[in-house]
Design goal:
about 350 residues; mainly alpha; about 0% strand
């Protein structure tokens, strides 16, 4: 029997682990790394042949069409991310902390919504707000006009609306999970001390949800940078993003080298944003509930004068007289318990 304390015996489990890792690594190389390597190689291969060269990159990066597509991609992705964050935060707060009939069913519907394809949402918006959609049809029926007033879905604003509508649930899902971990006692104590709903959100709820909010925003930003179906199905001819430019060069123009150059730039941009997100998350604590607890002094305008208590993120002073407490606002009326259920 070999001695398990020898270096040779210690290396055997490592060899076994390496052998088990070979199949998934090989599958990843064949399915993902090899096609990516082909794209990168084609991006440095000139159309007229010859060895690897940076001339295709110089030609594409100097083109006005590429600069316009890059600007459209960044602006639409940033606007859609901001809109999804604001709308997702508002809807998540209502679902998690404001009790209303059907709230639980709405929270379950968000999980189903995540499985919808992006073009389905775009088609729904076209049926509602398109030039021959329901809204314009009602307008023409009532006023007798030849056409309705809504004609924005074929513009950048239509693309922005479609992306905000589609990607908002991707922000809400991690937020609802984070809100379900917020202690109801903290919210009730803050409300009993006279804190207004916005102050409760700012000092008690949001600090716990910031990592989830950042995670949802980073996910939406990367997905918006690579979104193709929404831009295509809106029919916005003057809105060319990087994925649309790849499609145009490869399918319509037959310029495969230029398409690969744009694809590589898009990949680099997405990976850079993801790396930045990882760095920010590493500095801010990474996961909800692991941030350092801190105290925030009570604002005299937000609390009762007779309650000199500290409404902090996780602590409330226990020296406040019982007579100075106020009713818990509707924000905390059982909503957290329902979100946890």
């Amino acid at each position: 029997m070999p001695d398990r304390t020898t270096p040779e015996a210690g290396r055997r489990p490592r060899r076994t682990a390496a052998l088990w890792a070979l199949p998934p690594v090989a599958a990843l190389a064949v399915v993902f790394l090899y096609p990516l390597a082909l794209v990168v190689r084609q991006s440095v291969t000139p159309e007229n042949g010859g060895g690897p060269s940076t001339a295709p990159y110089a030609a594409v990066l100097a083109a006005t069409s590429f600069r316009d597509a890059l600007a459209n991609t960044v602006l639409i992705a940033a606007g859609a991310t901001l809109g999804a964050l604001l709308l997702g935060l508002l809807l998540s707060l209502v679902i998690a902390f404001v009790p209303f009939p059907g709230g639980r069913a709405l929270a379950r519907f968000i999980d189903i919504f995540l499985a919808f394809p992006s073009f389905l949402i775009t088609l729904a918006l076209l049926f509602l707000y398109g030039t021959v959609g329901i809204a314009n049809g009602l307008w023409t029926d009532v006023t007798g006009a030849t056409q309705g007033p809504l004609d924005f879905l074929h513009t950048p604003w239509g693309v922005l609306l479609a992306e905000v509508t589609y990607f908002t649930p991707f922000v809400m899902r991690p937020l609802l999970a984070a809100f379900s971990q917020v202690e109801t006692a903290q919210v009730e104590a803050a409300g009993s001390l006279g804190a207004r709903p916005w102050r409760i959100v700012r000092t008690v709820i949001l600090p716990e949800a910031l990592p989830s909010l950042a995670a949802g925003g980073a996910l939406v930003l990367v997905m918006c940078l690579n979104e193709f179906g929404i831009v295509l199905f809106t029919g916005a001819k003057n809105v060319v993003t990087l994925p649309m430019l790849v499609y145009t060069k490869a399918i319509l123009d037959g310029d495969y080298t230029g398409a690969c150059v744009v694809a590589v730039v898009n990949i680099v941009l997405s990976v850079a944003l993801y790396a930045l997100y990882r760095a920010v998350m590493a500095r801010t604590g990474g996961t909800p509930g692991r941030r350092k607890r801190r105290r925030a002094p009570a604002d005299a305008a937000d609390t009762e004068p007779a309650a000199p208590a500290v409404v902090g993120r996780a602590e409330v002073s226990s020296t406040t007289p019982a007579a100075s407490s106020t009713p818990v606002p509707a924000l905390a009326a059982g909503g957290a318990d329902r979100a946890r259920a």
